[in-house]
Specification:
single chain, alpha+beta
Length: 277
Amino acid sequence: MTGIPAAPTDPDDPLTSVNIADLVTIVRAAATRFVMGKAGGEARTHITVKGVADFVTEVDTNVQSFVKSRLADRYPDIQFLGEENGEQDVDFDGLYWVLDPIDGTTNLIHDYHHSAISLGLLRGGETLKAVLYQPWSEEMFTAEAGRGAFLNGKPIHVTDEADMSRSLINVGTSPYHHELAERNFDIMRRVFVDSADIRRTGSAALDLAYVACGRADGYFEGSIKLWDYAAGRLLVTEAGGTVSDWQGNDLGHRMETAVLAGTPAIADLLRERYLND
């Protein structure tokens, strides 16, 4: 966990009014209303194709509209960036929300019950607050910069694993970029041979959350978007782990990037042995 950041000196800074409990309430309400139950089941069958293996359902758009509206009502001075509807025009030097209304849309379409709503509050390239909710398991992950990471209100921490042979590694296939498949699967094969096992969940946000809470020791993927990692990276770093690109650089607010997360030792091993050869 990083040191507790200084409180904003400007009393008019909208960050001072942001309460993590408010964000939890908004995200949980969105999931209850639009993801779970009959309404969500019907909406997930209304699908639009955005690109190669890239889909959007009415659940995605309904969640985004709901969360955006509630945030605007509560925090009108904070900008909004969301995955859907082209809502990505913000001043990155200011304070802004980053929402993935459904991370794991393909899982949702197939009724796989492994998707999440991911909400981060950023300034510049730093995530300050994060809420990530898996509605089927009712797992609410939260973090605030300098104040730790939590799962359903209980502190979480990455494992202390440093041995690749004992490690469980989450992997992503970068499904929107089939041209990366040959290299990606070669890396995965080599990691699989050297580790305890690998997992592919279909949700980058949950991959990061699972590193944060110790279910996995590392995670890597060749290409994800800002809304995929904006909340999850704070969970990992506040839980004692590291998040970077494959070269070890900070992700900042890149709209698309490779990602590597894990315990400090396992992240170093993945970078040195597999990702930069």
